Amino acid sequence: ANQRVFATSVDDGKYTIKPLNDNGTSTAGGAAITVLHGGNVGIGTTSPGTINSVAFSGVGLHVKSGTLGRTITEGSSEASYLLNNSGASVNQRIKYIQSTAGNLAIGSFNDNGLARPQITVLNSGNVGIGTTNPGAKLDVQSSTTGNLLARVYNPNTGTSSSAAFRIASGANNANSASLQFSDATAYTATISGDRVQGLVFRTSASGGNPITIPERMRITPTGNVGIGTTAPDTLLHVSKNSSNSQLTLERTGSATGKYGIYTNTNNLYINNVASSSFPLVILNNGNVGIGTT
């Protein structure tokens, strides 16, 4: 009952199809389809192109449905929306939103119909920009030489304006938050930051694991800086398992000079690298040598 009758009407340049109750009265849903004289089509609305009392020009189809406002596009192999700006430049006219094989793609077509996916959302939740097979929650790729892949920018010039990029982990374990660098075959550097170790810098030419490549420097949570040691006990602690210089001071240009400072068997050596001499040596017994070791 009350689902048998539809009525059509033309009023002031507006063609309307609406359902009626069996007694001829209007249903609570109102108009089902409205076609304006200019070609605008409304489904569930008698004012296609008007939203929140604001009229938008050039609206071809306006769909309104209850509180959820859902529309469905269904296909057995894919479902797509195509948006064409016929006035745009060559190969820049057609954009699309497509669902296929459980994934969502946003991209464009060239004028020959070749698809160019720009954003891909896998069913797993991974998002790819420039790749259709993202291997992480956000995977950004580009093969263009020298291309800027990501930017964090705040154009506000106020004194309290800022721009920040945060890497956070709820675990608070060693190496729980890190910035990792790699090429196509190996991890080359890692910067880890956590409350256990502080800030740790690692580098390698052939790293297989970003966390186990050799550590080069760290800044502890208390502010001590260690180079070659994981446990600096002073503001600057330099360590090296070799008799070579642990610290080098060099000046380049017209007035050159290069000195090395290192310890060996609890002795302290200051080495003039250019002349291979030792202007100053302090032995562990307290003897001081000037020009002799």
What would you note in describing this structure?
The radius of gyration is 35 Å and the shape is elongated. The protein has a 6-stranded mixed beta sheet, with no helix packed on it. A 6-stranded mixed beta sheet has the order 14-15-16-17-18-19, with no helix packed on it. It contains no helices and 24 strands. The protein is an all-beta fold and 293 residues long. The termini are far apart.
Layout of helices and strands, plus pairs?
Blueprint: E1 5-11, E2 14-20, E3 33-36, E4 41-43, E5 50-51, E6 54-55, E7 61-63, E8 78-84, E9 94-100, E10 103-109, E11 115-121, E12 127-129, E13 138-140, E14 178-182, E15 187-194, E16 198-207, E17 215-219, E18 225-227, E19 236-238, E20 247-251, E21 257-264, E22 267-272, E23 277-282, E24 288-289
Parallel strand pairs: 4-7, 12-13, 18-19
Antiparallel strand pairs: 1-2, 2-3, 3-4, 5-6, 8-9, 9-10, 10-11, 11-12, 14-15, 15-16, 16-17, 17-18, 20-21, 21-22, 22-23, 23-24
